């Protein structure tokens, strides 16, 4: 197909030749999939349905020269991460694209190859979508549907005073990778650039962790860190009507991130806490449940560290960051679109 534009294929050509082949066989629980006016899905009687959506816009969520294969994987990963944060099992998804005429067929094919790779890796089935022309930028929307036991969804609103706050994986890698790509934080070792930019382009949705926490009824509240640790912790605080204290000394940083912070100091530290797109799980558990956390670490093979605690609400819900006994004042808590 070379570098011909998608305009050569036409709307139904794009669906038939590029998107439909992502789903080569009927997914489990799919009564009607791609090709009808709506998909028809079988939700088992004993389960609740989780539904989430995330949009990615060229120039806002990814640069025009981003690798379409990785972008396809990321479009799914950010949605899978939201299902993970609820403790559910992702099952089905819809994919909607607004595509300008200038887009090449090979770009779209690579994108679809990335979507297919992620959907096979995480066992989710494409059941529909929408394909339209854009007069400017590429816009990608995924809606992810998942299943969870009845009334078992882990909300943001259950954090209790005295709870310990835990974070999976490491913090700030994605923000550092992006900053370097955008020409900020230029001084980095080549190995760090490749690790950090990979963490930016290819987040790992913590599905097994979310399900294990839910299964053990361990997390009182959970959120995935997409806007930044401080912003997303603030969301838990507001939903739960509590406040939180985070200790910088406890935060988990990768070796690459530690080198960036050593090089750039306070501004890099603030970026790690506020940059976002970590797609790690942040959750609150009872102070007596630390042993169970260790079991889950072994079960799912993802590191979990205690980063702070839940405190009384005070005047209003808020997050305090402490370092060496002092309170750090950080102006921006995370990413906002407007
Ligand atoms: N246009 C909208 N209409 C209805 N609900 C919306 C709309 N935009 C966002 N929401 C809802 O508001 C809540 C917060 O949305 P937000 O997009 O910040 O989710 P998030 O998981 O915190 O972030 P991310 O978008 O990075 O996944 C979610 O419950 C979402 O479904
Ligand atoms: C080119 C480019 N510039 C900036 C960013 C950073 N960025 C965009 S959206 C977002 C938060 C999550 O989005 P949402 O809340 O929409 O899920 C972040 C941190 C990027 N990824 N690419
Ligand atoms: Mg989320």
From TrEMBL:
What protein family does this chain belong to? Belongs to the thiamine-monophosphate kinase family.
Q: Which of this chain's residues are annotated to bind Mg(2+) 3?
A: 37, 82, 224
A molecular function (GO) held by this record is: thiamine-phosphate kinase activity
Q: Which gene produces this protein? A: thiL
- Listed binding positions for substrate are 61, 277, 335
- This chain belongs to the protein called Thiamine-monophosphate kinase
Entries under HAMAP family matching the protein: TMP_kinase
Query: What InterPro entries does the entry give?
Result: PurM-like_C_dom, PurM-like_C_sf, PurM-like_N, PurM-like_N_sf, ThiL-like
Provide the species name: Magnetococcus marinus (strain ATCC BAA-1437 / JCM 17883 / MC-1)
Enzyme class comes to transferase
Q: What Pfam family is a match, any one?
A: AIRS_C
UniProt-annotated binding residues for Mg(2+) 5: 227
Q: State the function annotated in the UniProt record.
A: Catalyzes the ATP-dependent phosphorylation of thiamine-monophosphate (TMP) to form thiamine-pyrophosphate (TPP), the active form of vitamin B1.
Q: In which pathway does it act?
A: Cofactor biosynthesis; thiamine diphosphate biosynthesis; thiamine diphosphate from thiamine phosphate: step 1/1
- What EC number(s) has UniProt assigned to this enzyme? 2.7.4.16
Q: Which residues bind Mg(2+) 2?
A: 54, 82
Q: List, for all copies, the residue spans of the domain called PurM-like C-terminal.
A: 160-314
* Keywords noted in UniProt: ATP-binding, Kinase, Magnesium, Metal-binding, Nucleotide-binding, Thiamine biosynthesis, Transferase
* Enzymatic reactions: thiamine phosphate + ATP = thiamine diphosphate + ADP
Sites binding ATP sit at 129-130, 156, 226
- Which residues are involved in binding Mg(2+) 1? 53-54, 130
Report domain PurM-like N-terminal positions. Answer: 35-148
Q: Which residues bind Mg(2+) 4?
A: 37, 52, 82
GO biological process terms on file = thiamine biosynthetic process; thiamine diphosphate biosynthetic process
**Miscellaneous comment as given in the Swiss-Prot or TrEMBL entry:** Reaction mechanism of ThiL seems to utilize a direct, inline transfer of the gamma-phosphate of ATP to TMP rather than a phosphorylated enzyme intermediate.
């Amino acid at each position: 197909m070379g570098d011909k534009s998608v305009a050569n294929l036409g709307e139904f050509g794009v669906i038939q030749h590029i998107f439909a082949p992502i789903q080569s066989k009927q997914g489990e629980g799919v009564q009607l999939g791609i090709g009808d006016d709506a998909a028809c899905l079988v939700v088992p009687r004993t389960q609740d349905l989780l539904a989430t959506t995330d949009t990615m816009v060229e120039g806002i969520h990814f640069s025009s020269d981003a690798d379409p294969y990785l972008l396809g994987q990321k479009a799914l990963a950010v949605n899978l991460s939201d299902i993970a944060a609820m403790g559910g099992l992702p099952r089905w998804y819809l994919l909607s694209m607004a595509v300008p005429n200038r887009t090449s067929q090979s770009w779209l094919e690579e994108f679809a190859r990335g979507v297919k790779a992620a959907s096979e890796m995480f066992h989710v089935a494409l059941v529909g979508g929408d394909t339209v022309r854009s007069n400017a930028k590429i816009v990608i929307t995924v809606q992810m549907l998942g299943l969870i036991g009845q009334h078992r969804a882990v909300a943001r609103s259950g954090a209790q005073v005295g709870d310990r706050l835990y974070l999976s994986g490491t913090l700030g890698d994605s923000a550092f990778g992006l900053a370097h790509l955008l020409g900020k934080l230029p001084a980095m070792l080549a190995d760090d650039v490749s690790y950090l930019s990979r963490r930016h382009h290819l987040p790992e949705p913590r599905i097994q962790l979310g399900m294990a926490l839910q299964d053990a009824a361990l997390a009182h509240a959970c959120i995935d860190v997409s806007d930044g640790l401080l912003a997303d912790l603030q969301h838990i605080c507001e939903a739960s009507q509590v406040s939180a204290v985070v200790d910088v000394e406890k935060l988990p940083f990768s070796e690459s991130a530690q080198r960036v912070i050593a090089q750039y100091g306070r501004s890099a530290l603030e970026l790690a806490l506020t940059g976002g797109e970590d797609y790690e799980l942040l959750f609150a558990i009872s102070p007596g449940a630390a042993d169970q956390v260790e079991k889950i670490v072994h079960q799912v093979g993802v590191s979990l560290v205690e980063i702070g605690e839940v405190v009384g609400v005070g005047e209003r819900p808020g997050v305090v960051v402490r370092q060496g006994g002092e309170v750090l004042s950080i102006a921006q808590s995370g990413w906002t679109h407007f």
